[in-house]
Amino acid sequence: MRSGALITGLALAGLIAAACGGAGPSPGGAPQATAASACFPVSGACPEEARGLDGAGATFPAVIYTRWISEYEKVTGVRVNYQSIGSGGGIKSISDRTLDFGATDGPMTDEQLAAAKGPMVHVPMVMGAVVPTYNLASVEQTLRFTPEALAGIFLGEIARWNDPRIASANPGVTLPDADITVVHRSDGSGTTYIWVDYLSKVSPAWASKVGRGTSVSWPVGVGGKGNEGVAGAVKQTPNSIGYVELIYAIQQKLPAGQVRNSSGAFVAPDLDSVSKAAEGVTLAPDLRASITDPGNAAAYPIAGFTWLLAYAEMPDRAKALALTRYMWWALHDGQRYAKDLGYAPLPADVVELASAKVRSITSGGKAVLPAR
Amino acid sequence: MSRADRAFVLGTGALAALVPVSLAGVALLLLIDALPAVRAYGLSFLVTTRWDPVHLVFGAGAYVYGTLVTTALAVLLAAPVAVAAAVFLTEYAPVRLRAPLAFVIELLAYVPSIVYGLWGLFVLVPFLRTTVDPALQALTAPIPLVGGLFAGRIVGLDLFTGGVILAVMILPILLAVSREVLLAVPPTQREAMLALGATRWEAVSRAVLPLARPGIVGAAVLGVARAFGETMAVTLVVGNSSTAITGSLFTPGYTMASAIANQFTEADSELYFSAIVEIALVLLVVALVVNTAARLLISRTAVSMAGQTL
């Protein structure tokens, strides 16, 4: 049954491909002609596109990108090569045009955009969240944190667990009279970016003393390398608190605290409450949007996008077609793989905005994908 | 020389030249990439301690401090153990056991450093935190200066643990080199002492060890070189925090090599990247100097002992 469907699908794809090739538009011809039904919407191979794409960047979305790449190759035969070298490396590679696309968890700064070899677009692909995790042997209930408590703990101003600023949000919980050990990431990371971006928004003291970035100068605490390093240090150190990606906390069954959002509700982090963070939020036109501390009453407040980076104008038409088709597919068909892998899918309105960004990519001044 | 000979000499010579040329290339590349940071901070880079990638202020002082402290601690802990064990292996151990024991110890040198790191994180850290650290703290608290070395909150991920794991890691190389050096002491020296009526211990302490001393120092310097550049294992246990230099070994710290490993991938601004590269450059220079010194010391021992045999 399944293989039958597959064969039909392949045959269809072949037919469509043939039709697309038969149309035979001259190079640089009208984009609408190239994007015949075969090439768009993405349903099979498209003869005019490049057979391979190279990209690199953020480690956080590497799991879903790998899955997308293998599924996408089955659909279109295009081989996408993605190296998870870190957001910084991704930004550097695309800025130098050494690769076809980059990927990052923290948006590029204005200076970085100015230094790139041409105007770039940020396309959000999927969402992730960062959660506080802790090790308190004597506490069985899930802890609740106010934004003030989290900022105070990570600034070192709240040094003991039974501080009223933590206790007041946790009635009925007996917090130990013990020093808090803060654990943070030692390596530069998009996870850190989302965490400190949130702290910067809710705490003026954090914004002025520490600020936001993939690496920051931590006022207190010990550093662990990677999510596993932070989780390991938290697990081993009594009375410690750290932060990890939601997906990692779920997989490792780590205790994850609830966080009070801007509407005053304590929200437990899960894939639905994370998707809510981007729902109904007005995004900046360039989609370099921070969605931490959103207005949505059901949203978990420490969430963020991860972006693909591409040039708004790509001279190589075959590459441009391959890349825009891949991004389009990931934004639509690809989203259904997100939840199984622990990522929050983009809400429909964000998919709409992101798709418009993909359509805006041009080659030789002409749109690569059809307008509608 | 025939034509084939000449070609062979040229070919092998070119291949041999590859090594120094690539070393020079690495150094040059590091120097070029480090220039912006060198220009911005000069020598103060090595002593100022604010490292703030958000506000683009970079001083590697805390990393330098952490590297020096963990390295010194490692050599202080490992050297006496290594020398004692080497003396046992060369002078006292039953002859049949000497070779197998030495082999096992040298095997330790080939354990990948990430394995040491994981062992450190999951075995050594809890053990030190719950047992050794509190005992040391209680023991040294009344002693004026020494007490300060072990003061403060015990987290387990700190300079002390970093030093201990480095000690474990450099022990095999220290021991292997010390043993070679002791073996190189001519038997005639021992025999002469014993013939004069000296005890075994007197022969070792008055004849063998003094002759071997420069070589043992060389072994220690090799240990320093290895500890200096060690990355993965230390990164996992040292605490990776550059916030405080307190003088206590129980403060979380940071080493230069860990700083590179941790921050290189996300160093997204030019100055940040350049500051990281400058740390690498400093590490390279120190490693070259220290290794050269060690080689000189060890070869001098060999030469002086060769003289003694005559």
The neighbouring-strand order within the major sheet of chain A is 2-1-3-11-4-8-6-7
Helix- and strand-based class of chain A? Answer: alpha/beta
The global form of chain A is elongated
The termini of chain A sit apart by 34 Å
H-E order of chain A: HHEHEHEHEEHHEHHEHEHEEHEHHEE
Uncertain ranges of chain B: none
Label the structural class of chain B: mainly alpha
- Give the terminus-to-terminus CA distance of chain B: 38 Å
Give average pLDDT of chain A, whole number. 87
Beta-strand segment tally of chain A: 13
- The total number of structural domains of chain A is 2
Please, what is the CATH homologous superfamily of the largest domain in chain A? Periplasmic binding protein-like II
User: Uncertain runs of chain A with pLDDT below 50, 5 residues or more?
Assistant: 1-36
Rg of chain A over CA atoms, rounded to whole Å, is 23 Å
The largest beta-sheet of chain B arranges its strands as: 1-2
CATH topology of the largest domain in chain A: D-Maltodextrin-Binding Protein, domain 2
Rg of chain B, Å, rounded: 23 Å
Largest sheet of chain B: 2 strands, antiparallel
Q: What overall form of chain B do the CA principal axes indicate? A: flat
Q: How do the SSEs of chain B run, as a string of H and E? A: HEEHHHHHHHHHH
Helix content of chain A: 25-40%
